[in-house]
Design a protein that fits this description.
single chain; Rossmann fold; 11-stranded mixed beta sheet; two-stranded antiparallel ribbon; 14 helices; AB_hydrolase_fold; Peptidase_S10
Length: about 525
């Protein structure tokens, strides 16, 4: 376990049911700028505005009963796979909904709703359904993979998840609007939800509707997002708070909280990427005389990145040739690339180049989401990796296992297409964001979202809110040092530092792909939930 507490660490389809409907969530796809699970959305075609209203479905659910031993006790629970309708109106007029949101909820039988926590989980993208979180992390079942090797062909195996959080909290996995079985209805369109703030509005409406329909207003409430899901969670902390939903805790898994950090001309991203490069070089034995403990090496790399490396980048073109040689040699010691290559890159190594260069002599490329994964390239030349072995190595297993689980275990008989990536979402996504607090609503709208400020605003208003930031040290999509930076600059008082705790794991973006890391992650989550109720 690598953890720091001190550091910026249908039985048949139920009848056309009434509002007494139900709940649950899923992980992943991102665009080429920053994070986990932006994968297939880019290949989708743009959505066309429907020529007439889309039929509005009834709210219905497939309800099944299960039991499992988790955390040393036998838990009897109900799985509810259903949909809720959300209205575009500001009032509760659900006769005019614009989207139907699919969820899968796991709720402990006989538990007191006033004391039993409920957690809303989702993946990212933007535009990803939540199959990754549900089938890999803390849901009651998980798929087995061969990570970090590419997973074998079908049949795939799904097993009870001894690392589930169901002993601590009810779980509601939500498919983001336009993904999974979530889709527009009535006069709704994909463009209505394809944006930072549009997505926040839809999720706020769904969560408020879920806790109202299921009588969970007084339950302790948590959010659990991965990748762009962390962007969503930070924003939701503010929009839910404004809606009267006071959160107990937020789990940020593989965070991206500032889309401006890698803008052209800015050097901060090279500094925050550097410790991740060092960890990956350590893992692949490209570090001479490497220390036994990766976290020790990471902290050494951080000290160098924050000191001599930052100073060299600050000098820019004024850096002397002698100093450039010195810095390049020091960088080479940490990240395993040749000093000559580093100098040719002007001391600025992108994650895409690093993925190609580190194992170039073996004609192998590294995974972006998880650099433990390796894959062969067609040829050794070129600057960038043409695919992501950490995506292709697990996607088939997760998708097939989830569909089998839906049909055979949850008894979902829906024959509609389940969209792992929402058609038209990524292409139509509006990254403009109106920040919470002092910078909005009268402040300037952001062209790219910076949501750590939203989270800071929420913590200032709700000083009891706890945050757990979990990080895979081999993640090149959302490097952990960037998360440390953003959460250290939220504008909160130093006495609120204890609101945030940290976990660092020998894994990538999807920490749970390393089962030993999942075990440690689950232990840390248990402590977090115990302290955040």
């Amino acid at each position: 376990m690598i953890v720091s507490r001190k550091r910026p660490v249908l039985r048949a389809i139920a009848s056309a049911i009434t509002p007494a409907a139900l709940a649950f969530v899923l992980v992943s796809t991102l665009s080429t700028s920053v994070f986990a699970q932006e994968r297939r959305a880019n290949a989708e075609t743009k959505e066309e505005t429907p020529s007439k209203d889309i039929p509005i479905p009834v709210e219905k659910a497939a309800v099944t009963q299960h039991q499992e031993t988790i955390g040393g006790r036998e838990i009897h629970y109900t799985a509810t796979a259903g949909n809720l309708l959300i209205s575009k109106e500001d009032h509760d007029d659900y006769e005019r909904p614009y989207h139907s949101i699919f969820y899968i909820a796991y709720t402990e039988d006989g538990a007191d709703a006033n004391t039993r926590p409920v957690t809303f989980l989702y993946n990212g993208g933007p535009g990803s359904a939540t199959i990754w979180l549900e089938m890999g992390s803390v849901g009651p079942m998980r798929v087995l993979t061969d990570s970090p090797d590419a997973t074998h062909n079908a049949p795939f195996k799904i097993v009870p998840n001894e690392y589930s959080l169901l002993d601590k909290t009810d779980l509601v996995f939500i498919d983001a609007p336009g993904t999974g079985f979530s889709h527009p209805v009535g006069k709704g369109t994909v463009k209505d939800v394809a944006g930072v703030d549009e997505d926040l509005t839809a999720f706020t409406k769904f969560i408020v509707r879920y806790i109202t329909v299921n009588h969970r207003w007084n339950s302790p409430k948590f959010l659990f997002g991965e990748s762009y899901g962390t962007t969503r969670s930070a924003g939701l902390s503010a929009t839910l708070n404004s809606a009267g939903v006071q959160l107990n805790g937020i789990v940020l898994l593989s965070s991206i909280l500032n889309y401006n950090a890698h803008a052209a001309g800015l050097d901060n991203g090279y500094i925050t990427d550097f410790p991740s490069f060092a960890a990956i070089a350590w893992y692949h034995n490209k570090v001479p005389n490497k220390p036994a403990d990766v976290m020790t090496f990471i902290r050494q790399a951080q000290e160098f990145a924050h000191g001599p490396y930052a100073e060299a980048l600050w000098a820019g073109n004024a850096l002397s040739d002698a100093d450039a040689d010195k810095i390049a040699n020091q960088m080479s010691h940490f990240i395993g690339l040749s000093p000559q290559f580093i100098k040719e890159a002007n001391l600025r190594i992108s994650a895409s180049r690093f993925r190609k260069e580190l194992l170039r002599d073996e004609n192998k490329i590294l995974g972006r989401y998880d650099a433990r994964f390796e894959g062969p390239d067609a040829e050794a030349a070129g600057d960038n990796a043409p695919y992501d072995p950490s995506d292709t190595g697990i996607s088939g297993a997760y998708i097939a296992a989830f569909h089998s689980y839906l049909q055979n275990d949850l008894k979902v008989t829906d024959t509609d297409t389940y969209n792992n990536s929402g058609p038209g979402l990524n292409q139509n996504w509006d990254f403009n964001h109106r920040p919470a607090g002092a910078m909005g609503p009268f402040g300037r709208e952001q062209r790219m979202p910076y949501v750590a400020g939203d989270l800071g605003d929420t913590i200032r208003k709700n000083p009891h809110l706890k945050v757990f930031a979990a990080n895979g040290v081999y993640d090149l999509a959302t490097p952990f040092t960037a998360t440390e930076w953003e959460l250290a600059h939220m504008g909160t008082e130093s006495k609120m530092r204890s609101n945030i705790t940290w976990g660092y794991y020998p894994a990538g973006h999807m920490v749970y792909l390393n089962v030993e890391a999942l075990k440690s992650f689950r232990q840390d989550l248990g402590h977090f939930y115990d302290n955040a109720k």
